[in-house]
Automatic annotation (TrEMBL):
Residues 131-438 form the DUF222 domain. Residues 515-552 are annotated as: Disordered. Residues 520-531 have a biased composition (Pro residues). This is DUF222 domain-containing protein. InterPro entries: DUF222 (IPR003870). Pfam families: DUF222 (PF02720).
Length: 552
């Protein structure tokens, strides 16, 4: 090919699908020259020199690649990048392990007699190599040692390109509150599905595994964090400021949903953005200045409009005026005013006056998934929809003050089957069931809250789509629009999966929420230590304390 003094010219490709010069270069590196290969095989090629060679060579001929080939090359290059980042981390960990904290040794390539504490030179040497400060080098060493000493499986998955650095750090950082043994148990629980999970999904799975593996510790940490709840103010520039409020998960989730529902209820006639509405409504609620629409205000407005139309003073009694009143007083001009027009005008005037009790809707405002054994006293953590695991004691307190609904789950898949019970809009129970089943938006890599339910097979118009759980999926607003965008396809599977296919042919499958953590039996608690013979009460002890039980 040639791009000198003219456009890119296509050349005849070889049997491998490459320009002859490229093929010759690659064939010299391949063991089996007759084996055809190409970019389509890159996603299944393990990280290693072969993948690096193919990516490097193919990237030099990007002009011959299709859109799908370009994305394949980008994905393969990203896996190589993650591999080398993990190798860097492992080398630092091995280097630090050779010189443990508290030991003394001569720096590498220094005089053997130059023995000094390792802490005086090891971080500085790391800083020199990577051009970072001593503090950053210390953090890098601690991070590397956590992967090499505590979480080697996570490091191996990272080095193999199965997970990226951000997911590896999520596992490492979240498990710092656990002992090394418990951290490895959590790692074994979340690592198998980490590659296909979004960062939010992985975060929720890690927190769920931590709460399940260490329920007592989770309760203690929750109590400490709850005691630290506070509210603060920050003065900003340009006449602005910020309020920061912390609280328990159930408090913040319920408050957010209240304000969000009220903001969304204002409709399109309100020219403010959704965020602006939320902020204004929150300040009105905190300051006690929220305007409330009530029937008395509507009746007074209607009376005023009708009285003005008849030329009489604005009193509620003027709405009862009859034709005989007009005859008795010729000065009053009778004007026909439609009640529908008046009501419409009043509704428009009062559109921004919210009634919190009406807008927020039926209680409870938040959904808590809690197992029956937790309600009966087990320490199994529960799940706060949209937030994550919460301690068992918190779940029992919420259940005592809220409404309970039965959720039946499949013992094999962990999916929600039934929430308790043919029109276009799903009834309340069906709406609740689909939202509980899906958990969050069913987009390919989306973890936003569900805003809309969508018919997979369109309703009406000859499509014969039914308003049923099997034909409904929960989406956020953006995913709902993406589903109908040109080139995108969503295929519903018999097992509840929803496969998304992009215009370039890449696919992802999402499944309903897995409730297995709330149905699997909890691990057996450790057996109490056996009493030693010295700890058995003696006759003298029993004589001193007659309440002690006799030894058995």
């Amino acid at each position: 090919m040639s791009d000198v003094d003219g456009p890119l010219l296509a050349v005849e490709l070889c049997a491998h699908g490459w320009p002859p010069s490229v093929c010759r270069e690659l064939c010299d590196q391949l063991d089996e020259h007759d084996e055809p290969w190409g970019l389509a095989a890159l996603p299944d090629t393990p990280v290693g020199p072969g993948l690096a060679l193919q990516v490097h060579t193919a990237a030099a001929t990007a002009g011959l690649c299709t859109d799908t080939d370009l994305l394949t090359l980008a994905e393969s290059a990203a896996r190589l990048r993650e591999c080398f980042s993990a190798v860097t981390m492992r080398m630092v960990g091995v280097f630090a392990a050779r010189h443990p904290p508290g030991s003394s040794a001569a720096p590498p390539d220094a005089e053997p007699r130059a023995i000094s504490p390792v802490s005086r030179w090891l971080p500085d040497q790391i800083g020199f190599v990577f051009s970072v400060s001593r503090e950053e080098a210390l953090s890098m060493i601690a991070r590397a040692r956590r992967f090499t000493d505590v979480l080697p499986a996570t490091l191996a998955a990272w080095e193999a390109g199965r997970i990226d650095e951000r997911r590896a750090d999520q596992i490492a950082n979240a498990t710092t509150v656990l002992s090394d043994d418990l951290a490895r148990e959590v790692e074994a629980a979340v690592l198998p599905g980490a590659a296909d999970a979004t960062r939010r999904q992985l975060y929720d799975r890690i927190r769920r595994a931590i709460a399940r593996g260490d329920p007592d510790g989770a309760q203690r940490r929750h109590a400490v964090a709850k005691a630290d709840r506070r509210m603060s103010i920050s003065r900003g520039e340009e006449g602005m400021g910020s309020l920061w409020i912390s609280g328990t998960a159930e408090q913040t989730e319920a408050s957010w949903r209240c304000v969000d529902r009220m903001a969304r209820s204002l409709g399109t006639q309100d020219t403010r953005t959704l965020d602006q509405r939320r902020v204004d409504i929150a300040h009105h609620l905190l300051q006690g200045t929220m305007s409330v629409t009530n029937l008395g205000a509507v009746e007074s407005a209607v009376a005023s409009v009708l009285a003005a139309a008849h030329g009489a003073p604005a009193t509620p009694e003027s709405t009862d005026r009859t034709d005989t009143d007009t005859d008795a007083n010729p000065a009053v001009t009778s004007v026909a005013v439609s009640s529908d027009v008046v009501a419409a005008a009043v509704r428009e005037v009062l559109a921004t006056k919210l009634d919190p009790n009406t807008v927020i809707g039926r209680k409870p405002l938040i959904q808590v998934v809690v197992g029956l054994d937790t309600l009966l006293g087990s320490e199994r953590p529960a799940e706060l929809a949209g937030h994550g695991p919460i301690p068992a004691v918190t779940a029992r307190a919420l259940a005592a003050g809220g409404s309970l609904a039965r959720i039946v789950t499949d013992p094999v898949t962990g999916q929600c089957l039934d929430y308790g019970r043919s029109t276009y809009a799903p009834p309340a129970n069906l709406d609740d069931h689909v939202r509980a089943r899906d958990g969050h938006c069913r987009g390919a890599l989306c973890t936003r809250d569900i805003r809309e339910l969508d018919h997979h097979i369109p309703f009406g118009g000859g499509h014969n789509g039914h308003t049923s759980a099997e034909n409904l999926h929960g989406f956020c607003t953006g995913t709902h629009k993406l589903k109908d965008a040109p080139g995108w396809h969503a295929i519903s599977l018999p097992d509840g999966g929803l496969t998304w296919i992009s215009p370039c042919g890449w696919s992802r499958t999402t499944y309903p929420k897995d409730y297995t953590p709330f149905t699997d039996p909890l691990p057996e608690p450790p057996a109490p230590p056996m009493d030693t013979p010295n700890e058995t009460p003696t006759d003298v002890d029993q004589a001193a304390d007659p309440n002690l039980p006799p030894p058995f």
